[in-house]
Design goal:
35% strand; alpha/beta; 126 residues
């Protein structure tokens, strides 16, 4: 059974789930446990090195993923770089979601308000 581990700070959209199932053959989505999700979503910007900080995430992935599984990795650039390189050593497939942005601007009370809507397009391999 092909799995997709969710190493990002959002919930999957219905469109992302559908695409992962249809285009990648994903049968199961694996969210991080709450403590690890908090760790990933709150990488301290003052850390110069992330090796030690990311150990719990690496241990979770190593213990639960199987070769050929997908890992959706999005977030802190340094954290992403580190985790993409790590999961590849395990024979996992690192991907990120590409999006199309639709922006609307309007003037209200003399101020310009900008609204952006992001729509999933495809999963791209790192």
């Amino acid at each position: 059974m092909r799995q997709m581990f969710l190493l990002f700070s959002h919930k999957l959209t219905t469109q992302q789930e559908k695409d992962a199932k249809e285009s990648l053959g994903v049968e199961k989505f694996v969210a991080l446990p709450d403590d690890l999700q908090n760790l990933w979503s709150n990488i301290p910007p003052e850390l110069k090195e992330l090796d030690e900080y990311l150990i719990p995430l690496k241990e979770f992935i190593k213990a639960n993923a199987n070769e050929g599984d997908y890992v959706l990795i999005q977030g802190d650039f340094g954290g992403c770089f580190e985790m993409v390189n790590f999961v590849k050593t395990l024979g996992l497939i690192a991907v990120h979601s590409t999006t199309k942005r639709d922006t609307v601007e309007r003037v209200a009370d003399g101020k310009v308000e900008k609204f952006s809507k992001f729509e999933h397009v495809i999963f791209r391999s790192y």
